[in-house]
Fold this sequence. Notes:
Blueprint: H1 10-16, H2 19-27, H3 50-60, H4 65-75, H5 81-91, H6 98-103
Helix pairs in contact: 1-2, 4-5
Amino acid sequence: xxxxxxxxxxxxxxxxxxxxxxxxxxxxxxxxxxxxxxxxxxxxxxxxxxxxxxxxxxxxxxxxxxxxxxxxxxxxxxxxxxxxxxxxxxxxxxxxxxxxxxxxxxxxxxxxx
Length: 113
């Protein structure tokens, strides 16, 4: 494609591809496009960053108060990373318990797989 134009760069296409492929590519129409800025409404600046999305998610996803206080206590502990992962999963109901496995249609819901 030519920059900012809906046309193929014919010389480049013919140089890179075989004659048959180049002809097929050049027959394909290119839709005219215009650059539209991506606006994200999760922050007043309209700019998207993972930090802003994380903060937005913290505001929108409500967790029980008990989970928040437990997690604050756990996060202050000096322990192995895998303990933190297990605790996070426990606080967010992400452990493969019988009920969760049944909801995912794995097993019979009475025991882990």
